[in-house]
Amino acid sequence: MENLGYLFAAFTIVWAVIFGYVFSLSRRQRHLWRELDSLKETMRGKGQD
Amino acid sequence: MKERGVMRSNSLLGLSFLLMVAALYLVFVYVPTEKEMGIVQRIFYLMVPMGWLALLSFLIVFIGSILYLRKRESRWDILAHSSAEVGIVFTTLALITGAIWAKPIWGVWWTWEPRLTATLVLWLIYLAYLMVRSFATEESRGARFAAVVGIIGFIDIPIVALATTLWRGMHPGAVIFEGGLAPSMLLTLLVSIAAFTALYFCLLGRRIGLREVEAEIKKLSQD
């Protein structure tokens, strides 16, 4: 079981980075959807004027 | 059309999850511990898929960049840009897992060995690709410049792949292709590669989806 710490570190870092990236994609997606919705709302408002 | 895309994305995610569970079982339960390196050799089943995905993603950047310069259709630029971003994540992980493996085996975290150096150069090239994109004041200009970087940068891919054959370094030779792996190790490696490749396509699909929404917002803002 020598060097178990290195193995643990490798797997932890890989999954932390992948989950971090997935989280950042989800955050960007939420932000973009909000922006798109508000833009559509503004355009609808302009269309009614 | 959109529903079919979501269904495809969910099936790919499901496949990726199943393959990942199988890969973890094979890595930690099934495959025997290598005699010389011991338990730390299991990092191999992480590092090789990361390296493979670094090459695959930049091959897609290369193809997308050529098609964008030829056809000037934004979908090719979106594909190349998205693949470069996902690719840099996997190249970073290939470098990190390589360093973690190198420390107990070679006694150092990093050495200027041909394959490691070529991989670091690859990482820097694609970092430059992403920086060209983010610093460009005009979208189409940034896409054109980035496509040129994406094509020229691809020259480094065969150098990374053939580094151990062309120059004598500390890296072992082509053990995978020359039958140097025991069948159980080869099976574990192949399942791990398949699992991470499925994950790569999931992430690529999500990143492309984001770029499409960005493009829609830009279009609506200009109207």
Q: Quick summary of this structure?
A:
The complex is a heterodimer of chains A (49) and B (223). Chain A is mainly α and 49 residues long. In chain A, 92% of the residues lie in helices and 0% in strands.
List the helices and strands and how they pair.
The complex is a heterodimer of chains A (49) and B (223).
Chain A: H1 4-48
Chain B: H1 2-30, H2 44-71, H3 74-106, H4 114-135, H5 139-153, H6 156-166, H7 183-222
Can you describe what's shown?
The complex is a heterodimer of chains A (49) and B (223). With 49 residues, chain A is an all-alpha fold. Chain A has one helix spanning 4-48. Chain B is an all-alpha fold and 223 residues long. Chain B has one domain (2-222): Four Helix Bundle (Hemerythrin (Met), subunit A) (Up-down Bundle). Chain B has helices spanning 2-30, 44-71, 74-106, 114-135, 139-153, 156-166, 183-222. In chain B, helix 2 (44-71) runs parallel beside helix 7. The longest helix of chain B has 40 residues, at 183-222. The model of chain B has no long low-confidence stretch (mean pLDDT 88). Chain A binds chain B through residues 1-4, 6-7, 9-11, 13-14, 17-18, 21-22, 25, 28-29, 32-33, 35-36, 39-40, 43, and chain B through 38-40, 42-43, 46-47, 50, 86, 89, 92-93, 96-97, 100-101, 103-104, 199, 203, 206-207, 209-210, 213-214, 216-217, 220-221, 223.
Q: What is the succession of H and E elements of chain A?
A: H
- How would the global form of chain B be characterised? globular
CATH secondary-structure class of chain B:
Mainly Alpha
Instruction: Give the overall average pLDDT of chain A.
Output: 88
Instruction: Summarize the largest interface: chains and residue counts.
Output: A-B, 25 and 31 residues
Q: Give a count of the beta strands of chain B, DSSP E runs of length 2 or more.
A: 0
- Assign the CATH architecture of chain B: Up-down Bundle
Proportion of helical residues of chain B: over 70%
End-to-end span of chain A in angstroms? 73 Å
- Which consecutive residue ranges of chain A, at least 5 long each, have pLDDT under 50? none
N-end to C-end Cα span of chain B: 25 Å
